[in-house]
Amino acid sequence: MLVVSLNKPDSAMVKLLGATGVRVDRIENSSILRSALNLKRVLKDYSADLVVANSFRCYLVAKIATAGSGKPVAYWIHTINQIYTSHVRKFLFPLLSKRDALLYVSKAVRENNRPRGYQGQDAVIYNSVEGPEMMQEWQPYNPDKRAELGIPDDAIVLGYTAHFVYYKDHPTLLNAFDTLSQRFPKLYLVLVGEGADRKVEVARAEKFAARDRILFLGRRRDARALLGIVDLYVHVASEEAFGLSVVEAMLAKRPVIAARAFALPELIQDGKTGLLFESGNVQELERQITRLIEDRAYAAQLAAAGEQDCRRRFPPGPFAEQVTVFLRKVGSTRLPPAKKW
Questions:
Q1: What proportion of the chain, given as a percentage, has pLDDT over 70?
Q2: Against a cut of 0.85, is the pTM above it?
């Protein structure tokens, strides 16, 4: 396997892949055509049989680079809104992908991106998420970590990890917290993430009476470990292709409340492995949070069931096997090279 990146790859990822014998090459990203020409040379040098793209730009580059070669291209779609964001993409994608292999990370992604009249091979394969025990830095912090953040030992801590963009819907959570903080004087909110809307949400929080109990921690490499200080994980995103942070929280044995939006109901069995609420409904979110604060036994029951369910559904082994089987099947259907005139 060879990994080709349009942009400068993360050094830690290069090191990790290198340890498994996988080389990472970088090709220029100044234009799609130039990138395609560079990719074409790489594919020729390595006698590649199949190209897998994980963004629409990469997909276009791969299609141009493999034109006339018969090499199959698979597009691994892992976002809800990656393709149909412009008239050009809306026109090109159904035209180009009619017989290409498409791989989706959730049923919601397939429902929102499967082209009309599609005739190729496609599949839904959920991402794998390793348990926190796999790496030391993922293991949840002990509760005494709270002191470093200025959080009392007896606080009730809500947590949310997400980029600050409109579809992550931080306002719904902040507004719910504003109301609940008056009822629960020991309630705290920990927000992990960066983004264009962060300043707006910080300004919103500054108007709350309990503003000193809201922590904006920014981007953190220890985001998974921070789940150890959280009593309840709340994921309010109105648009989610998979929901990695949700699964990570469940694997950390945290009770989870999530919006009933896109792929999130695929991760949570409402009332059994977590709780759902109508996306954007502040009052319903308040009720669900209150329910778990006041019924700790039920919250613990959901956390235990959620962890077990995630370990059953998202382990690395079966995921790798499913992807391998799918790509081998795609690779065996090589198209005949275009005729030369």
A1: 98
A2: yes
